[in-house]
Amino acid sequence: KANIYYKKIIKNFPDTNHAIRSYLQIASKQNKVDAIKTYNLIIEKYPEKLLAGDSYLKLAELYMSIGALNIARNKYRIFINTFPSHKQFNKITSVLDKLNFTLDKANIFFDRSVSRFKEINNLKWSFENISLYDEVIKSFDHIINMSLDNSLSMKAHFYISACYNKQAEYKKEEEAFEIYLKQLFADDKNSALLTLESRAQHLLKKKNFEKAILYFRMIIKHFKGTTSEINASYNLGKIYMVEKKNFEKAIFYFMPILDRSKSNVFIKSEAIYRIANCFLFLDKKDDAIKFLNKIKGEKFKEISNSLIKMIKNNNIKLHDNKTTLVMNYFKAWKENDYNKMFNALRKPTFLSFNTFKKEIQSYDYNIVTFKFLDEVQKEHKSWIKIELLYSDNLNSKKDVFVVHLRKNFDSSWGISTINKLKESKDY
Question: Beta 367-372 vs 400-405: how paired, if at all?
Answer without folding.
Answer: unpaired
